[in-house]
Design goal:
- It is a single chain.
- This protein is α/β, with parallel strands linked by helices and about 400 residues long.
- It has 2 domains: about 110 residues, Alpha-Beta Complex (Aspartate Aminotransferase, domain 1), CATH 3.90.1150.10; about 250 residues, 3-Layer(aba) Sandwich (Aspartate Aminotransferase, domain 2), CATH 3.40.640.
- The protein is built from 11 helices and 12 strands.
- A 7-stranded mixed β-sheet has the order 2-8-7-6-5-3-4, sandwiched between helices. A 3-stranded antiparallel β-sheet has the order 9-12-11. Strands 1-10 form a two-stranded parallel sheet.
- Helix 2 crosses helix 8, helix 3 crosses helix 8 and helix 9 packs parallel to helix 11.
- The longest helix has 21 residues.
- It is globular, with a radius of gyration of 21 Å.
- The N and C termini lie far apart (about 45 Å).
- The mean pLDDT is about 95.
């Protein structure tokens, strides 16, 4: 894909007409949480239903041998993965988290190193296992951000970790680890499992995994910037690592379903992490998204540039007159920091109250603790930001 330069921010709102028309007055600035779906996904959803009616039992051949390979190819293109066969789908990333935990040693207590700012799909499970001493868990503070990579490497080496789990972009700040190559190279050792949570990075920031595809797992999904909704997550599995996770779905040997099963066979590619029966409609939607992006000649670099342009427009207006927590001095990651995602995070003790005030005037943002998150995506244009500023100022 060789996207053509075009003026920023973009205006692709016509492609999101159904979501936007559902509530024309809603100002949805939570693309980091649940992005609007393009209209193309509605036809994809209907196609999934029609295939089920047309093929019944045989729909899985179409899903797994037709829809998924197209999705995997598109994902691999965006992430610069050498081989789409290293990818595997699942309804959610927690499926993958459990499988990764189930691949750790059993002869001793596995050692896990992560940060104190991971999303709950990993944090909750890790802390619960640590409660019963089924893993040894070390948390590395994400802040100060400038020294995070260095401190993470030091902790992993000191603990001789079996599993390292870290976000590409942190959900509660927007800070991004922008040199995954260097980080993974320093973390890599033996059969250590290195996992990058890319949910806030995939199709939000340019990501090239080509040089670390043989060393690190990478997980993400369609709920946020991929704009495909629920039920379509994926994991890149580096060859040779965790060949037989104990938590295993029966699709992990789907190719041998018709033959007599002896033992517990596994695929040697990413399919070794495959789940069991799932709702495939999310894959249809994700295929439609990837096709739409290709037709529009859009990639993560353009998506990110669009979001940054909207952020700059937003903050420029607030520089003239701030509103409540929305000011440059409240930003957790400054606008000048290039290592950030497609959302802005404002620190404020009354963040929860502000979220409710915003909702009362049909502005949708969300809160994590004392941090208010404002997210920007392809379904917004410059006029939406101007409307947002006008409505914020009406709150005083």
């Amino acid at each position: 894909m060789n996207p053509q330069p075009r003026p920023l921010p973009l205006d692709l709102t016509a492609a999101f007409s159904r979501f936007r028309a559902a509530d024309p007055e809603r100002l949805h600035f939570a693309a980091h949480s649940h992005a609007y779906w393009p209209d193309a996904t509605r036809d994809a959803q209907i196609a999934a239903w029609d295939d089920a009616a047309r093929l019944v039992d045989e729909k899985w051949d179409t899903v797994l041998d037709g829809v998924w390979p197209e999705v995997a190819y598109g994902i691999a293109q965006h992430l610069r993965l050498p081989d789409p066969a290293t990818l595997v789908p699942a309804p959610n990333t927690h499926e993958f988290v459990n499988r990764l935990f189930s691949a750790l040693p059993v002869s001793r207590t596995p050692r896990v190193v992560t940060t104190d700012s991971e999303f709950h799909s990993f944090r909750r499970q890790a802390e619960r296992l640590a409660e019963d001493r089924l893993i040894e868990l070390r948390l590395v503070p994400a802040e100060p951000f400038a020294t995070l990579a260095e401190r993470l490497v030091e902790a992993v080496r000191a603990e001789n970790a079996d599993l390292v789990f870290v976000s590409q972009v942190f959900f509660n700040s927007g800070f991004a680890l922008d040199d995954l190559d260097a980080l993974v190279t320093q973390l890599s050792y033996g059969d250590r499992l290195i996992v990058i949570d890319g949910y806030h990075g995939f199709l939000a920031r340019p990501t090239d995994l080509s040089r670390i595809a043989d060393k690190a797992f990478y997980m993400a999904g369609g709920y946020k910037y991929a704009m495909a909704g629920e039920g379509c997550c994926f994991l890149h599995c580096p060859p040779g690592f965790a060949p037989r996770p104990r938590n295993t779905g029966w699709f992990a040997s789907f190719a041998k379903l018709s033959s007599v099963q002896r033992g517990v066979p596994y695929s040697e590619d990413g399919w070794r992490f495959m789940v069991s029966t799932f709702d495939p409609s999310g894959l249809y939607r994700l295929r439609a998204i990837l096709g739409w992006l290709a037709a529009e000649r859009l990639d993560a670099a353009i998506v990110h540039a669009h979001a940054i342009a909207l952020q700059q427009r937003f903050m420029a207006a607030l520089a003239q007159r701030s509103v409540g927590p929305f000011s440059a001095d409240r930003l957790v990651v400054p606008l000048s920091e290039t290592a950030r995602g497609n959302f802005l995070v404002f620190e404020d003790a009354q963040a929860a109250e502000w979220k409710d005030r915003l909702k009362a005037v049909n502005i949708i943002m969300d809160v994590r603790g004392s941090r208010l998150r404002a997210g920007f995506g392809l379904y917004q244009n410059a006029q939406d930001v101007d409307r947002l500023i006008e409505r914020l100022r009406s709150l005083g």
